[in-house]
Amino acid sequence: MRPGLTAKTVTALALAAVAALCIQGCSAPSAEEKPASTSSSSGAPFLGNRDYVLPDSPFTRDDTVVTATCGMGARYAAVTVRAWDPETWQPRAERTFPIPGDAAFTNYAGAKAVNSPLVDLCGMNPDNPSPYKVATLEYMAPRVRALFDLAFTRMAVVLRDPGNKADSHVGYVVSGADLDEVVRLGGAAGADEQNAVMSPDGRSVWFTYTAKGGGQRIGSRPTEGSHHLSDEGPAAGHGLPLTVLGKPPRAVQADTVHLAPGGRRLTAKAPKVFGNVFDTWNSSGPLTSRSAHRATLLSGCVGVVGWTGDDRVLCRTSTGNFRIMDARTGRASGAPVSVVGPQDGTVAEGMLVSPDGKRFLVAVHEPNARRSDDDYSYRKPDFRVVPTSGSGATTSVDNDLLDTYTMFLSWS
Hints:
With 412 residues, the protein is mainly β.
């Protein structure tokens, strides 16, 4: 678990910001987004994210690592994303996403408790843990990545209604926008919208919501036009995050979601579901034993780091090592990769796999490390690039812009 602020400090910051700124079965998809033609495969796989044409920028070019860091002060809160050269670890570009004062970036006493990956990035601390049950980096990084579109131009937010503490709505902010330029996509009285994430193309925000009958559903709102609500399918409550994948977009409600390079399989984790790797499907909904197709259990895997090929997955294992697993059989392939020794007093958590599958990024830290009540100073992190083969040199990731709160989101 990464270090965090104390509840007292977070509450003070959040209140100051608000004062100063005054933010399974799966049902059929909506009529606006028809599924791909039926496949002979039981999962009816969709094509994945490679069909999207992205604007050229430092964030979308090959061999780029993208990170996110949340910064909070008495009068301002924002998320900074940076594009990095993974050889020199020098930043190529950065973008800033302002966080409106009514946005749910932390949960604190007196405010509506909201599930949002933004809380993982900005507001998690020992007294106010992640809104999701597991908060290792293998779980948090995919959740936070889902806040942004593929090109890192928009960030989804959940907004608490300042006039009604029981209401919450979704919206988004554009990089470089002013604090008052948040786009609010809903505002109906009594709305309960949570888990806001972006579609891959940035044209819609997806979320879980409470329907009029009281059950939870998955919905989306377009970022332009009327922002009308489209019902996308059933949800397993607000307790699991969303990831939107594929073209046309579909939401998977589960943790540790990584799409395979070919787009036909994904990793995912959900309570009471046996397996780690599944066929993709064409409708939106939670991962359940009913919606899962051709499940493969990766033996001993406690956290998926990413795909090293279309049929191979890198896992952190129950022994604390990392290992490549065969996504078809679930068995280990190759030797275990040890990052820290049993006497080091530290743990290693996986973050990203390189596009060629030959390297991966890890964070090394003390178990259950915490920031002390009075420690607001910069803390130097221990990030490393490690060969997935277990042989070859491990290198340190070193730059003063990186700290222990930095989240590594993508390696293209």
